[in-house]
Amino acid sequence: MELRHLRYFLTVAEEKHFGRAARRLRMTQPPLSRQIQELEAELGFELFDRARRQVELTPAGVVFLGRIRGLLEGLDQAVHEARRASVGEIGRVAVGYISSLAYSGITDLLRAFHERFPKIEIALREMSPQAQLDAIKERSMDVGLVRGLVDDASLASACVGRDPLVVVLPAGHRLAELKRIRLGMLAQEPFVIFPRQRGPAFFDQIMSLCRDAGFTPRIVQEAPQLDDIVSLVAAGFGVAIMPGSIRRAGRKGLAIRPIVGAPRATLYIVWRADDTAPALREFIGFVRSTFVKKKADD
C-alpha cells in the first residue's frame, strides 16, 4: 500500500465522483479508477459502492475514511513541522550562561529571540565557564556564553561583547573617594575572587593584569557565585575585579570604580564545531547580530 493510494482514496471520497477527483488530482479518470481498484484488492474489501450514479462509500469505506483522514492530516503536519525544523524555525537549544550575564541583558536577549522564533524552546542554565565547556563537549548543552578565549579544537566560538572591568570596593573604602583606580593601588588589598576552576580564562586575565601592574593579588576568599563575591566585598572581606555589568545589580554597600586603562573582559559564544542543528545556528546568529547592534547603539 502506497501513500498515493490513500490520497487518491481520500480525494474520491470527498468528491464522490471519479471524474471530479481525477481533475483535482490532475490525472485522467481511468488510471485513478485502476489505483482505487488496486487498493481495494490489497485491502480485501470494497471501499466504494459504484452501483449508483453518485459514488458512495461502503460501510467499510466509511470506517477506513475516518482513520485515513486523521492519518494524512497528521502526516501533513509532521512534514510541515519537519520542514520548519530543517530551517531552524522550531527546535530546542540548551544554553549555558555565566552568572554576571544576569545583569547584562540576557533576559532581554532571550525575550527578543522568543518573539522572533516562538517555536524554538530555550533551556537556560547558569553554569561556570568550565562547566559549560564540559557540558557542550559531552552534548548535554548546545551552546554557552563565557568570558575568555576558548582554546579547544572541538569547539567553535565567536566574540559577542567586551565589558569594561571595574574595581568593586566596600562603600567606606579609602579608594572609593577616587573616580578611577590604577590597579597598582590594590597591591596591598585583600582580594575576593572566583575559584580558577570555575573560569580559568577570566581568572588568568585578572592575574595577568595585576602582574602587569607589579603585584600578585593576595586572595583571602574564593566564592563560586557572583552574588557571594558581591556580598563578601560589601561585608568588608576584600576587593574584587569584575565586569562592569555588576553596576546593574544595584547592590548596597558597594563602591564601583573604573580602572585606569579600561581593561575589558571579552564575552564569547561557544558551541560544538560539528553541530549543524538549524535551531542552534539561528540562536548563534541572533546572539551575534544582537550584540553587534547593541554595540552600535552604545
Automatic annotation (TrEMBL):
Transcription regulation found in the keyword field: yes
Q: Per UniProt, which keywords does this protein have?
A: DNA-binding, Transcription, Transcription regulation
Q: Which GO terms describe its cellular component?
A: protein-DNA complex
Q: Name one GO molecular function term.
A: DNA-binding transcription factor activity
Show the Pfam families listed in the entry. Answer: HTH_1 (PF00126), LysR_substrate (PF03466)
Q: Does the keyword Amino-acid biosynthesis feature in the UniProt annotation?
A: no
User: Which InterPro entries does the record cross-reference, listed alphabetically?
Assistant: LysR_HTH_N, LysR_subst-bd, WH-like_DNA-bd_sf, WH_DNA-bd_sf
Q: Taking every annotated instance into account, which residue ranges of this chain make up the domain HTH lysR-type?
A: 1-58
Q: Identify its protein family.
A: Belongs to the LysR transcriptional regulatory family.
PANTHER family attached to this UniProt entry? HCA OPERON TRANSCRIPTIONAL ACTIVATOR HCAR, TRANSCRIPTIONAL DUAL REGULATOR HCAR-RELATED
Query: What name does this protein carry?
Result: LysR family transcriptional regulator
Q: Which organism is it from?
A: Polyangium fumosum
